[in-house]
Amino acid sequence: MSELYRHLPSMDQILDELTKDEDIAALPRPLVKDQADAFLNVCREEIRSGAVTTADQLELKAVLPRMIAYVRAHSRPHFRRVLNATGVVVHTNLGRSLLARSAIEAVTEACGHYSNCEFDLSTGQRGSRYSHVEQILCDITGAEAALVVNNNAAAVFIMLETLAKGKEVIVSRGQLVEIGGSFRIPDVMTKSGATLHEVGATNRAHVHDYENAINEDTGALMRVHTSNFRIVGFTKEVSLPDMRKLGDKYNLPVIEDLGSGSLYSLKGEGLMGEPTVQEVVAQGADVVSFSGDKVLGGPQAGIIVGRKKYIDRIKKNPVNRAMRIDKMTLAALEATLRLYLDMDVARRKIPTLRMITASQESLKSKARRLADAIRSELGVKATVAMKKGFSRVGGGAFPEYDLPGTMITLVVDGVDAEDLREELLNTDPPLVARIEDDLFLLDPRTLTSTELKLAASALRQAVDSLQ
Ligand SMILES: *Cc1c(COP(=O)(O)O)cnc(C)c1O
C-alpha cells in the first residue's frame, strides 16, 4: 500500500495540467495549489481505505477529470447565483427581489464611476445623499418628506430612537410582530430606548384602550403591519383614521411600520389586506417605514416617508450615519422608483411585480417550456408532468394568499426525490426546488425565461451524479 503513495503525481505536473484548463488558469495560483493539495489528500485517503489499489488508477490522466472538477468546485466564490424554483417570489434567504434592468444598469454606472453621490451639481458644494430619492418618493407616496436607510429594521429603530427615546410608545398586543432573523418589535423598542406600552388583547384593541394608555410619558402611537401572520375570527384593530384622530387630540405622532410596503396596488390581482404606502400616507400616518426589497422590488433599503417636521428630526439623528445607504443602493433605488411613475410600466418591468402578477397563461407556457427543456436533458429517465399548484409572495407579505399557477413535477427512475433536491444544491448554478406531498416540484414562476435551460441543465448534472 505504501508503495502506492509514491505513484501520486507531483505538484508541478499537476499544476501544469490544471492550468491548461481555461477556468482554472484564471484563478489565483495559490488558491489552485491549495485545492490541488486538498485533492491529493482525498487520493491518499482513498489509498488508505483501499478504494484505490493499483498504480494506474493514480496516473495523472486518470485522476485529472476528477481533479479539475474538484478544484473548480472548491475555488468558486462563496457568494453565488442560484436558481429559485421554490415559487416564493420575495425569498429572503435567496436575496429577496431581483432588480429591474434599468436598476442593474444604474448600479453598474454608480460603482464604476465617480458620481454626485453627496455633491450638489448646481452649487459645486457638498450635497445630500438623500436628495436623489426624496422628491420622487414624495411624488409617488404623497408624503411631505422622505429619508432612506440601510433596511426597514434600521428605519424602525431610528424612527423610535428619534421620536420616542425615553418615552412610551403605545402598540396593540396583536401587532407585536417577530420577523424572520430575530427582528421583534418589543426588542427593537427596548434597544431604541423607548418603552413599549402594550394595549388591548391579542385579538382585539379599541380606541379607548389607546386613549386610556396615554399619559404624560407617551411619545408616540405606533401601528405595526402584521406582515407574516393574520389574526382571524373575532378581531378588531383600531383603524389608521381613528388613530390619527387620537394623535391630533393628544398631539402625538402616529408611526407605522408597514413592513413590505407596496407602492403598487395588488387589489386588482385579488390580493387584499395590504394597504399601499400611498393609502397609509393619505390616511394620516405621520411617519411610515417600509422595505425597499420586498414587494417594492428594489434593492435592500429602509424607506421612511412622512411629515417634514418628523423626518427632519430623523435626518439629524447622528445614528443615521451608522445606517446610511450606499451609493449603489441609492442608484438602484432611484431607478426602481422611476419605474413607479407609470404604474403599468412598474408592473411590467419590476421582476417582483411581474412574478406576482404573472397571468395563468404565461405561467402555463413557462411550465411547458421548462418541461420540454427537462425532457430534452433527461430523456427517458424522467417522467415530467404539469400540475396546478400554488406560489407565495413571501417576504412576510400577503401570508394568507396562495398564488395559483402551474407546477412541474419530476420523477427520475431510481432517484429519491429528497436526494435529488439536496444534490441540486451542488449543481452549477445550484437550483432550489420544493418537495410537496413527497413529490419533487419546480415552480416556474420564480425562474426567468432565460433560466429555464439552466434549470434543466442543473437537473441533468444532479441526476448524473446520483446515478
Ligand atoms: C420585513 C419587516 C421588517 C424588517 O425589514 P427589513 O427590510 O428586512 O429590515 C420590519 N417590520 C416589518 C413589519 C416587516 O415586515
UniProtKB/TrEMBL annotation:
GO cellular component: cytoplasm
Keyword Transferase (UniProt): yes
Names of the cofactor(s): pyridoxal 5'-phosphate
Chain positions with N6-(pyridoxal phosphate)lysine modification: 294
Enzyme Commission number(s): 2.9.1.1
Assigned keywords, A-Z: Cytoplasm, Protein biosynthesis, Pyridoxal phosphate, Selenium, Transferase
Family of the protein in this entry: Belongs to the SelA family.
Name of the featured protein: L-seryl-tRNA(Sec) selenium transferase
Gene this chain is encoded by: selA
